[in-house]
Structures are given as C-alpha cells and as structure tokens.
Amino acid sequence: MTLISAHRCGAGDETALENTRTALLRALDLGVDLVEFDVQRCGDGTFVVHHDDTVLVDGTETPLHEVGYEELCAHAGGLLRYDEVLHELAGRARAHVDLKFTSPAEAYADPGSTHEVAATEQAVAVLGAADVIITTLEDESVRAVRSWSRHRHPELLVGLSLGRDVRHLGWLHSLRTRLSELRPGRRYGATDANLVVGHHLVARLGVARWARRRRLPMLVWTVDDPDTLAYWLRSERAWAVTTNYPEVAVDVRDRTAGGAR
User: Fold this and answer.
1) Considering the entire predicted model, what is its pTM?
2) Residue (of 202, 19, 192) closest to 95 by Cα position
C-alpha cells in the first residue's frame, strides 16, 4: 500500500495553517502515514517548523540564521519548535522532515558536526530511525546525513529531492539542473541517498522507473489532483505520495484499494 504524507502538515487551501499545530492535529486525526514539515535553524541553534529562510524584522527581510528563537517568535508568533512536532508525532505517524537549511561549508568535512545531522539525531532519538525520513534539495546535506547514519541507523531513509524550481536560474544552469534530475544516477551515487524523492512530473519522466530498477523506494511530491493521486496510489507505482490534501488522498486510496479487490 502506498503511504500518504501530509505536505506542510496537510493544510490544503488554508495556506496560513501550513506547518501549524492545527493542521498537524487534523492530519493525525485522518490517520496519515507520514506528516511532512519544513525545518529551519535559528541563529541560536533552535530548530523551528517554518518554510521560509527569512523573517521580517522592523521592515527588513532578515535571514533566520541571524535571528534567535525568542526574537523570531516576537516577529512571527505561533511557530512550532521542531521538538514539539516530534513529540506530537510519537506513536501516531512517521516524521517526514524536509530540511530547509545547510551548514557552513567547512562543517561537511566532519558530517557529524553538521546542523543537518543534529536535526536528524534529534528526530531519531524521539521516534526511532524507522519512523523518520529526511529529505532535502541539497546534495551535501544528504551526503552528510547518510555518512552519519549509514552504519548507525541503516533503516533511516534519506532522500535527495529532484524537481526544484529553476525559474530563478539562468537558462544554462536550469538545463544542467534538469538533466541532473532526469538522469540522477551520478548525484545519487555521490550522495548515497537511499530514498528517491521526485516532483510528480519528474517522476513520470523516467525517475520512478529508474528507482524501481534499482529497488529504491520512491516518494512523489506534491500530488493534489485526484486523478494524479489515483495514478500514483496504485500498487507499486510509488512507495509514498506527498499531498496538500491528505483527506482527498486517503479517500482515493481507499477507493483504489476497493476497486483492486
């Protein structure tokens, strides 16, 4: 059975509720298999559940890594701490942790000293490695987490996300990025990622087939259309699907399973 992951806690059209406790609890009540949420790191080392890497401070967009947690709360109240979400998930659903930060370049020489590993270690301590998956767009982050977890927690799934937004890049950089995603062998070999994570369009253009041939689990993001959900929720097309509308996905999966019988 294909697993369902509630994207940004599954807020759907209520975008103001993304990555909030309200959406998190609603997703858990639906019985989703995983809850996906974005994690950023504040300047004082506190991990918070937040998508953007900046916050408005006195009218100025300020990087989160320059803002402490207390100051962040003063300017963007209501943000959940990472540890709060982990404890809320314990015993109810797996954590799909989407890392939105990186470490200083020199830290990658010692993967265990990276911020990404610190966040991963915290999740594993609360939930256990089998109930955590880590995803990120950054090759170095995947490499660091896999280097740390490969022998300690081989069951931990760490995925390199394919299908990033390239509209802000020059045409040559955009082309190279897309080609590296449609033919991901080199990047996956270099990072040792053991979970394939692809935008649903990239997945259809051969990445899902590539993953099946290598017997790697495939997580498809972010699927909201009911017909596209039905496609990916059919047996063996994907290991998991991320969606903003988990209630729709659960219904589609139930109907698809009923039709299969």
Assistant:
1) 0.95
2) 19
Q: Could you give the CA distance from residue 87 to residue 68 in angstroms, rounded to a whole number?
A: 22
Cα separation, 69 vs 45, whole angstroms: 8
Q: Where are the domains of the chain?
A: 3-260
Measured CA to CA, the distance from residue 123 to residue 90 in angstroms comes to 10
* Residues facing 221 on adjacent strands: 199
CB atoms within 10 A of CB 256: 18
Cβ neighbour number for residue 169 with a 10 Å cutoff: 14
Backbone torsions φ then ψ of 172, nearest 5 degrees: -70, -45
Class of domain 3-260: alpha beta
Q: For residues 218 and 241, what is the distance between their CA atoms, to the nearest angstrom?
A: 9
How many whole angstroms separate alpha carbon 109 and alpha carbon 95?
27
Q: Tell me the pLDDT tens digit for each residue of 130-152.
A: 999 999 999 999 999 999 999 99
Tokens encoding 97: 């942790």
What 3-state DSSP class applies to 162? strand
Q: What is the pLDDT of residues 101-124, one digit of tens each?
A: 999 999 999 999 999 999 999 999
As a whole number of Å, the end-to-end CA separation of the chain is: 13
CA 144 vs CA 39, 43, 102, 128, 185: distances in Å = 17, 21, 10, 19, 18
CA–CA gap between residue 159 and residue 234 (Å, rounded) = 22
Residues lower than pLDDT 70 in the chain:
258-261
Amino acid residing at 210: W
d(CA 259, CA 47): 43
β-sheet bridge partners, residue 160:
136, 196
Q: Which residues of 61-77 are buried (b: 16+ CB within 10 A; e: fewer)?
A: ebebbebebebbbeebe
